Amino acid sequence: MAERECSVAPLVFRLHGGAPQVVREVLLERGWEEYDEEDQEEGDWNLYWRTSGFRKSDYENILPWQRLNHHPKMSQITRKDCLARHMRRMKTAFGAALYDFSPGAFILPNEYTKFLGVYTKNRTTDRGKSRYWICKPVDLSRGRGIFLFEDIKDLVYDSSVIVQRYISNPLLISGYKFDLRIYVCVKSFSPLVIYMHQEGLVRFATEKYTLTSLDSLYSHLTNTSINKFGMRYDTDKERVGRGCKWTMSRFRSFLHKQDVNELLLWHRISNIVTLTLLTALPCIPSSPNCLELLGFDILIDASYKPWLLEVNYSPALSMDCPADVTVKKGLINDIIDLMNYRMTDNFRQKGYLRKGSSSRYLRPKISQGFLLPKTWHATGSKSRNHSISSSSSSQDTNCQFHPISKSVGHEKASQKFKEITDKVECDDLKLTTFNSTRQSRRNTPSTVFKLPSLNVRKIKSSGVLWNSTTQDRDVPPCRVGDFILTFPFNEATWKASQDQADVKAIVNEVHKLTNRLATSFNEKERTKTESSQSVGVGDKFEPLLWGPKDPPLLSECCS
Length: 559
What we know:
InterPro entries: TTL/TTLL_fam (IPR004344). By secondary structure, this protein is an alpha+beta fold. It has helices at residues 21-29, 56-60, 75-78, 80-94, 112-125, 217-220, 224-227, 248-256, 262-279, 322-338, 348-353, 374-378, 382-396, 417-422, 491-496, 503-521, 528-532, 554-557; strands at 12-15, 33-34, 47-49, 67-68, 105-108, 133-137, 147-149, 161-165, 172-173, 176-189, 192-197, 201-204, 245-247, 292-300, 306-313, 479-480, 483-487.
């Protein structure tokens, strides 16, 4: 991982205060350089990483060589009250059965009367049988402010909270409750492109599960930020071991020994991610050169049904144990590969605005017009390599860059990897001269001449015009490192997620695939007629089933 990504000019990263140390370590190992605001121009960076959200102006002024690690308005699914509203709306629109993976939520204090009615009704119909509830602050993380209750007299709060039915029959490992932290990368919202990482974390409570003491956070909550202070955190717990985390690989080994349909379980978890992100699809604007890493917390109950607990914004990337090191360093490396940096991105404004074909910035020694992800070199999969390269190269041709008063070299990357390799002997960059223009970024004519800014270090975003609406329009690769493409999974979902997304059509495709997989996984119920029907996952897509150690093709699972 320590090899430099470009032997001519390094990529530059910029970290906001509080950014995870592992991000800095991984980028430095890859040969990047850290941004220095005293020595470098304001826009002279390739990646800006921060744990908090960006300002609206950051999205409006993003330049073609830059990437941001957040999409705007992600609170639509990461705030618990917003997610609850979206879930309720989708249940109404598409049926509660499709969205039965999230317990109904009441947003208090506004919906206290509604909750009181449900609570009273349940007490009457259950004939005194206990029903447990969980209360969570809508905007806090790391388990802060969460408590359980059975009697409504114990419901006390001083801020906006949500109350949900507590899933009181979780799957246990040697008596300990656990949940799954699934890492999800949303590369784009228009079109919707979702990747799920093969490696994740299994987070354990450090006290054995019991309903006799609802006040015991160490037996009911799995947050590491809480359990690392438990008395049994460092003890060697039966089967769980020391600490409170497993890797997903270790969990797969455990699951393989259980009497459960593993493939169907993995697909149901993948469905939860897709259907959850669909709830906020109409609310999140399209932003080029952005991606989002989310942490989905999934609970599996005793009947092996997966439940969505919450969606985490800027999931913790701290290194608390060996499992963290194993999972998170590989995760960050794969995220960087997903960002699709091109050769000219190394030189930032110089690479796009520098005049003259003799410039070394515009004449790299290798024939690719972009940087291949490290995973391209690490795998022998021909189809996977082709999908990564074709996606990256076709994306590169979608941008056009125009200077304010100079002509500019324009890089035309090949559409297919074969075309690239055929031209290894030739000059890989064809330069086209564009007429100079004095139009602003919005192509509005300027009639007022202004003196240069006193802040000479500042890069003006209007200096480089590019067609941001053409970004992320090429069929994404089915796998990048350990990231598996889970959406779109066929041409129908790809088409339906473009521009004004057709959520109804997408939900219909998801429903059809789920039914087909459920039938295919159950050999006793499969019929010749069903197995001969088209599964809708063929065409130019070769999607994989996320979850298993060696992900099979979806088409194989459905045949």
